Amino acid sequence: MKNLFLFAIMILFFATLGNAQIPDKFTNLEVLSKDISKRELIGNMRSFAIGLGVRCHFCHVGEGNDFSTFDFAADDKPQKKKARVMIQMRDAINKQYLTQLGEENALQVNCVTCHRGYSEPVTLQQVLIKVISEEGIQAGIKKYRELRQRYYGGFTFDFHEQALINLGYAFLGKKENENAIEIFKLNVEMHQESFNGYDSLGEAYMKAGNKELAIVNYKKSLELNPNNKNAETMIEKLKEE
What we know:
This protein is mainly α. The chain is built from eleven helices and no strands. The protein has helices spanning 2-21, 38-52, 78-97, 111-115, 124-135, 137-151, 161-173, 177-190, 195-207, 211-224, 229-240. The radius of gyration is 24 Å and the shape is elongated.
């Protein structure tokens, strides 16, 4: 709901300011048609901004809301150069490849298809792995909370429990047990009624050598799902050991 509200504000912003302040004649158009109308160009810019969740100064030289002060023709920012390549890629997919599928009214790829309202087309797992590798597990958890606070309820990131569970098992696979434990703890905090979350946390504690907390979490998983045979088996195994 929050994302929809932000998108509505951005659309209103472009509608009220764009036509009045964007110049009537355009220069340095390399991938867009040199005969493009002002209305069509503004529509393209609006779709870029909404698709990436950014404002005009992300690609263009300028600050604030006064478009008359922007140097739209300047190629100073690398984001603008990347955008040209992305436009060419989008057009190639839509015109050269999707048309070969032979389907009427085939879906068209656009910026929002991959970016989903985020400046870089990355998954939640990719963002967290990068932060954790550079700054540590607690920084990664902080980043998760920030992203959830901002994007939850939209389609930018996947906040279902499987995203965190997959990340936790990625750490377990690398024998980074403490990182896995912290991710699984975060998951059960966010999804307290998930038996699978507690089952995974129990496994992480078991692999870290903490049998007591492993049993506690396996028992919690079994409480939430009495049919969880894995938890039942692991509890018996840990008690025997």
